[in-house]
Design a protein that fits this description.
By secondary structure, the chain is α+β, with helices and mostly antiparallel strands. About 30% of the residues lie in helices and about 30% in strands. It has a 4-stranded antiparallel β-sheet. The relative contact order is 0.19.
């Protein structure tokens, strides 16, 4: 489920945002489990190149907010885009 071998720029960006990959896993899981009903949790790339965690309801995507999806969670499944 989790790609423990993430390296390079993505891992550096995750560690900058969350402190560690393990903390990212905890926060990402909490974001996904905390979404009531239909929706998604996302790791997104912002316009400045930084990454953040976000969530959206139903069919909405971070693209609507001008952000680039990198990793998503829906119904307990994760996908690297």
């Amino acid at each position: 489920m989790w790609n423990q071998s993430s390296t390079g720029k993505l891992l550096a960006a995750i560690e900058k945002e969350c402190g560690s990959f393990a903390t990212f896993q905890e926060h990402f899981t909490a974001k996904g489990m905390g979404r009531f009903g239909s929706g998604w949790a996302w790791l997104v790339k912002n316009a400045d190149g930084s990454v953040t965690l976000s969530d959206t309801p139903n069919q909405d995507t971070p693209l609507l907010e001008g952000k680039t999806p990198i990793w998503d969670w829906m119904s307990g499944n994760t996908h690297i885009i």
